[in-house]
Amino acid sequence: MSAASEQRARRQGERTCAGCGATRAQAELQRFVARGGRLEPGRTEPGRGVYTCRRLACFERALARRAFNRVLKQTVAVDPALARLYPTSQVTRIES
Ligand SMILES: [Zn+2]
Description:
The protein is an alpha+beta fold. The protein has helices at residues 3-11, 56-64, 67-72; strands at residues 14-16, 23-25, 29-35, 38-41, 49-53. Zinc ion is lined by residues 17, 19-20, 22, 52-53, 55, 58.
């Protein structure tokens, strides 16, 4: 994804999923921020945010690709329990 397309998406109030790269309205995405070196969910938390679709697969993919670290520009610890934020009937183990 280029910086230019990212800027265009932001002007339209859209954000990019760190997992699959899809651009969606911010309201459709799960937002996280880094706090104390940990990934924390937070729609209104200040600071740089990272987004995923509301799909567990996107969270897992972002984790596997270290996209959270890349977007947040720091290394964050990701609690596998964050998977509970995602609506799913299947419980999937997340390897960290
Ligand atoms: Zn996604």
